[in-house]
Design goal:
It contains three helices and no strands. By secondary structure, it is an all-alpha fold. The chain has one domain.
Length: 84
């Protein structure tokens, strides 16, 4: 039973990490319209439009992967929990 609870905790952690990255992306967008520098703006100054698109794109892909893995892990944990 502890393994199932660990799987559920891992799933929740991955989901929270994906939410954090999603909020981080919105923070980048908000900082873009202010006078403050953000990591994305520094990437843009250094590497141009290709750099910022790779930066934001990689974070979005990571969000999708984390969300999918979180869903899979929670589904597996709940299936195991139902069978026991």
């Amino acid at each position: 039973m502890t393994e199932i609870n660990q799987l559920i905790k891992i799933s929740k952690f991955l989901q929270r990490l994906a939410y954090f990255l999603f909020v981080f992306i919105w923070g980048e967008i908000i900082f873009y319209f202010t006078n403050y520098s953000s990591p994305g703006e520094l990437f843009y100054k250094e590497y141009g439009a290709n750099g910022i698109s790779l930066y934001l794109g990689s974070i979005l892909v990571l969000i999708i992967i984390l969300s999918a893995q979180s869903k899979r892990i929670s589904d597996i944990a709940y299936r195991i929990k139902k069978t026991k």
